[in-house]
Amino acid sequence: NYYQDSEAAINHQINLELYASYVYLSMSYYFDQDDLALKNFAKYFLHKSHEEREHAEKLMKAQNQ
């Protein structure tokens, strides 16, 4: 059924977006360590983490309409 397949595909995409968000968040904290001089990398990956989470939230909102 088309509806169920579409919903499953959107759920899969949501999971991918959230996974990417967590990976970027982890990378952000890695680069934010005191013994690394890469604070701009930390900011960049934190920004990317937020972007990916926003993508997931938009998909979840669209599913609930």
Fold and architecture overview:
- This protein is mainly α.
- It has one domain: Ferritin (Up-down Bundle), CATH 1.20.1260.10.
- Helices cover 85% and strands 0% of the residues.
- Helix 1 runs antiparallel to helix 2.
- The longest helix has 30 residues.
- It is elongated, with a radius of gyration of 15 Å.
- The two termini are 20 Å apart.
- The model has no long low-confidence stretch (mean pLDDT 95).
Terminal Cα separation, in Å?
20 Å
Average pLDDT confidence is: 95
CATH architecture: Up-down Bundle
Tell me the count of domains: 1
Question: How many β-strand runs?
Answer: 0
Index terms:
single chain, 65 residues, mainly alpha, Ferritin, 2 helices, elongated, Ferritin-like
SSE topology sketch:
Elements: H1 2-31, H2 39-63
Helix pairs in contact: 1-2
Subcellular location: Cytoplasmic vesicle, Autophagosome
Function: Stores iron in a soluble, non-toxic, readily available form. Important for iron homeostasis. Iron is taken up in the ferrous form and deposited as ferric hydroxides after oxidation.
GO biological process, one term: iron ion transport
Provide a compact summary of the structure.
This protein is mostly helical and 65 residues long. It contains 2 helices and no strands. The longest helix has 30 residues, at 2-31.
